[in-house]
Model the fold of this input.
Amino acid sequence: MGRAFGAEAAPCSLEESAPVEIAAVDADLDLLTQDGRRIALAGVEFPAGPLRERSRARLEARLAAGRLAFLSAAAAVPDRWGRIAGGLYVEGEGDEAALASLAEALLREGLARFRPDPAAMPCRNGLLAAEAEARRRGLGLWTAGEYVVVDAGRPDLLAGRTGMVVVEGVLGGIGEAGGSLYLNFGPRRWADFAVVIWKGNIEAFERSGLRLRTLSGRRVRVRGLIDTAYGPRMELVSPAQMEIVGAP
Done:
């Protein structure tokens, strides 16, 4: 299981949440409120294809008319699509009366995976734990080949990949060049997988507890877009994109 850093903040609790009535789930799986707002669940990436329809059906079931819901907004202003990113808490099912995170519920069932957007960083611990449970149990999207965690030692498996990819492996070495820090998962330049972090972003990783220059020999899991122009590599801009797997 990956190690997360830092305590959960207000967006991941009910302390600063407000009641909200959900009117519908749209085609993009955004949540439309009765008062005209559009909510995107922070830290959630929904799958494509038939699994997406399962996710939609589950959302609609959890947000049935009359069910109590609370919005804890992580973003102060809407994004360019007019969406407010945040967490939504809904009543439990069956005998579970307590309010629970809708995002965590979807991740735990394998109906979504963690998306490391900035709004999700305060809630990262719980979201990653929920995703890890679904991955261990082989639920939902974790049975589909396009969503499996790619072995960093098999860079050939990254060829032609699009969208967000999750890669895991033992970090072999660290280098610096051109104003960037390189985390190399193999000795072959241009051939083996590497992670690139611009030096201006290093401070954010350090503040989260990730001491990048001390990670050689550690098993690391990262997620982001793959760039194959200069060999298979991934640029990280947020500590939400990285997990340290296993004990030190």
Remarks:
- The first strand starts at residue 2 and ends at 3.
